[in-house]
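agent: user wants the full assembly modeled, not chains individually. Plan: 1) parse entity lines 2) check alphabet per entity 3) run joint structure prediction 4) return tokens. Steps 1-2 passed, two entities, 513 residues total. Proceeding.
--- entities ---
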Amino acid sequence: MGKVLVVTSGKGGVGKTTSTAALGAALARSGENVVVIDFDVGLRNLDLVMGAERRVVFDLINVVQGDAKLAQALIRDKRIDTLSLLPASQTRDKDALTIEGVDRVIAEAKVKFDWVICDSPAGIERGALLAMRNADVAVVVTNPEVSSVRDSDRIIGMLDSRTLRAEKGEKIEKHLLVTRYDPGRASRNEMLKVDDVLEILSIPLLGIIPESEEVLRASNMGSPVTLNNPDSAPARAYFDAARRLKGELFEVVVPLDRKGFIGRLFGRRVA
Amino acid sequence: MTLSETRPLIRLRGRSIMALVLAPEVPLNNWLAALDAQMERSPNFFDSRPVVVDLGGVPREQHGVAEFLQLLERRGIRIIGTEGAHPAWAGIEAWGRPLPASAKPGRPIEPPEAQSGKAAPPPQVEPAGPSAEANTLLIDQPVRSGQSLVFERGDVTVLGSVASGAEVMAGGSIHVYGTLRGRAIAGLAGNAGARIFCSRLQAELLSIDGVYQTADDMPAKILGKPVHVWLDGNHMKISVLE
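--- prediction returned ---
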């Protein structure tokens, strides 16, 4: 039986979809069988970040409503064959998702894959609740700023009360992934420090993803950053996070981009 | 062949409910008139509330106590038991239903004034779990943003932090061993003696018995400190615990 992981945050724009793609690809590269499921029905993005937008035929709603089989809707990644995508529907909304349908799709996916990664929509409504419902593990994506931290706190409360595991009285494993972290700005007190975020949220740290133009570049290329530039700082941070998800224990460090002489001189990299 | 009989399983559960205690005084007629006047001002006050009649203040030689209880029931008061009834009173056996001696006396509740037409508040749902017996609710995890914790019957102790956007409300005092970033509302049911303690003050709002302070009102020098909050008359006092 595979593990169901939800990538969630409450707040929008903090990097849930980027992290879903990057972690999914990192786990798949390590030999795991992975499916990433886009729960953001109506505002689907994961297909773009994965570079699969031209290959979508059936989507999550079709499978939930029984119009297509799971195997028909899955899109296998062209770069790594252990990575699959179940896209969301762009033309429908979250009301088209049913509890029974979602439970059935997740149960089926758990049999086929080692990891079922659910990319949650922003917010705390139906879509987000259905994305977290079946989760065994949660990755809470947080930017080091106060509104993101408070929204993550709200989501952690919901993970502890609104998931199937919580309803059965079991614990759900929660990990904090700090994204868009800029060590320079944090040291100048322009950003919350990771220790402050950890103190407020009090869940274990999975990783710190440094702010990097590599992330945007990878998105625009339609490729998870862990595939597009595996040596870049954010990719290395995501690889470390994926190893921690698999149970390895080692110290969290913030990887830095190695800048060349020209890059240091002008303060940015030559594209 | 043996016939196995399936007997229904008898389940017993312990449950505590909140009852109002009415303590009539002599002369009973005057007391009834006062009660009528009170019920006119707040007609729904006794609706669906269990009532215990404390007859301890009624002298032994009083006549017609059983009839007096009937008059109370006729006013829509649901008597679930009596306390302090004297066995010599005629007809009292029917009303006896004495409460176990261990029942706690409770504390006075002010009847609402001029609450005409307004429905009585629904009965409180008692929190489950062993902590319901003691008058302290112990929370051994952080209270997260958006969560609201209400415990009317006593104190609340939180071992973790109370997040920004979370609130803890207690009939009694509130103790937070982590950082208090959200709201703490103590002395909910009118208890001016309630207090708030926290090991780090970053609260958005502090309130005791309806007197409140927002973060803006709190002196900057106490923020981040372990504090003790109490009421001195109508003034909220905050002192640093050191």
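agent: reporting back. The interface with chain B takes residues 124, 146, 150-151, 153-154, 156-158, 160, 199-200, 202 of chain A (CB under 8 Å). Strands of chain A lie at 3-8, 34-38, 75-76, 83-86, 115-119, 137-142, 173-181, 205-210.
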